[in-house]
Amino acid sequence: MLPVKFQYILFLVTLVAAGCSSYSELNYEILRPAKYSVPPEIKTVVLVDNSVVFPDTNVNVIRVGDEIVKVDTTKVQDYTKFVLNTVWEELGNRHFFDTVFIDSIHYKMISKRGPVEKLSQKQIAEICNKFGVDAIVSLDAYRYTNNIKVNDMGDYEYYSTYDASAIHLWRIYDCHSGNIMNVHLQKDTIFWEGYGNSLNQSLAGFPSFSDATHAIGSYLAYKYVDYVAPHWEEVTRRLYTSGNMNFLNATEWLNKGNWVEAEKIWNYIYRNGPEKARIKAALNLAVAFERKGNIKQAYEWAHKAYSILAEKEGSDNSGFKRYIIDLYTQMAVRMNEIKKLEEQLGPAE
User: Fold this and answer.
1) What's the pTM?
2) pLDDT tens per residue across span 322-340
3) Neighbouring C-beta atoms of residue 175, cutoff 10 Å
């Protein structure tokens, strides 16, 4: 079974009309695999700053109409330290590696090598011996910029936008072989916008250059942890709670916290009900099994719902049909993720 974080469910309150029947929304968290599978023998790592101090004078730019103003006095001197600390804290929270260290030495600043140069074999050996780890996770290069653009809309109306962008280059080095195991380049932007009757008013809600830079740095740091370690993701699923007396009875059991009895009723509806009720019952059972972490059973029930739909004639493009297809697709994706999660976490119990 794959783990699931069950957060909350509101049956009596969160009712949304769906054709002639209704459904409730169920929210819980599911475990997603990391995009990169760290080899299982890598149990301890050290985080290293192998980047150069940011040399660009065009870090912060304000554009007011056709006029460009460069603000060069607000560089974030602790940017890489902040990023590495954020990665360290989040890896610790996820308990993916046995131990995570941070090296306080800023290597590339000392060696004065190129901006994307990798660690040398000598440095790799020294760092690995110093911390006794299996691998080095190194921030080998970075760049950040802040851009504000102010548009004079006329009649004392101003519209302003703020883009905070950053690029991070990460490498993972194998301490046993000295080879590079993985290279990952991140590039992203976060965005703010503001309106006002004056230029200053349109900028009033924007963060400082320093805060915006920390915000994009934090965002990319969390994204990198997602890249190397499994992460929890909240999903919203439907549970069909009315339409006939059997669904209402199942809902009463759910309101009492008794999923076992509700599942028995959905099974009965699937075996004996009319076509549309059978589809809804199958969808509910798919969600019930996903909620328990049984993705194989969840996929099978979603496939049953989809199979009934596929046998129907006509080109119905309702929200109900789209949800059936969407849930079936998501369960198929999750089936494909099982092998990757087992590679990263070990076989499910």
Assistant:
1) 0.81
2) 999 999 999 999 999 998 9
3) 22
**Helix axis angle, 275-291 to 295-311, nearest 10°:** 160
Q: What is the DSSP string of 4-71?
A: EEEEEE-SSS-EEEETTEEEEEEEEEEEE--SS---TT--EEEEEE-PPPP--S-SEEEEETTEEEEE
Distance separating alpha carbons of residues 194 and 164, to the nearest angstrom: 15
∠ CA 38-39-45, rounded to 5°? 65
Q: Which domains does the chain have, with CATH numbers?
A: 4-33+236-345 (no CATH), 44-229 (3.40.50)
Paired tokens of 238: 């439907």
Element (H, E) at 290: helix 275-291
CA 263, 264, 269, 272 torsion: positive or negative?
positive
Distance CA 254, CA 249 (A): 9
